[in-house]
């Protein structure tokens, strides 16, 4: 099976080829068509198996082209390192499109992040604490989020983010696509 058979647009296939990938991994073969079909997805696969591309590629396709100021997709990650990696994947795979990705996380000044958000974004990659801070300051609105992605859900719970995740969920529209990707799944998740 090739990426061509997954129903991805030519510009996404070109970006995949640029990265040197020819065949999707098992998680990508299963997740990409399900995300494109608009289904909620609960996916588990070990680190290094291509989970990020499993949600990034179909998300970029579903969002299409640039929209208004507020994000239409939110990716929540447990650490700033992972947030930066996911945002870079969005940029790499979306390089032949015009969608805007912004990343926000703690441990650095929020001023540049607020400034970037004022320019608008289609995809927001964030850690829970910084996202909640920026929402409280009204620097970003989650009212237009169509797709919510919880990445590394197992680590989110291990790190004690459950309350923050619940607060974020209350800010999202009730009608949305939910994607959860994790290396492991406990009963709590």
Residue stretches low in confidence (pLDDT < 50, at least 5 long) are none
* Physical arrangement of strands within the biggest beta sheet: 1-6-5-2-4-3
In helices, the fraction of residues equals: 40-55%
The total count of strands amounts to 6
Shape: globular
Q: Terminal Cα separation, in Å?
A: 31 Å
Radius of gyration: 16 Å
Would you summarize the structure shown here?
This protein is an alpha/beta fold. It is 42% helix and 14% strand.
What key phrases describe this protein's structure?
8 helices, 6 strands, alpha/beta, 6-stranded parallel β-sheet
Describe the structure.
- This protein has 189 residues and is an alpha/beta fold.
- The chain contains eight helices and six strands, in the order ααβαβαβαβαβααβ.
- α2 packs parallel to α3, α3 packs across α4 and α6 packs across α8.
- The longest helix is centred in the middle third of the chain and has 14 residues.
- It is globular.
List the helices and strands and how they pair.
Layout: H1 10-18, H2 26-36, E1 41-44, H3 51-63, E2 73-76, H4 80-93, E3 101-104, H5 111-118, E4 123-126, H6 128-136, E5 147-151, H7 153-158, H8 162-171, E6 177-182
Parallel strand pairs: 1-6, 2-4, 2-5, 3-4, 5-6
Helix pairs in contact: 2-3, 3-4, 6-8
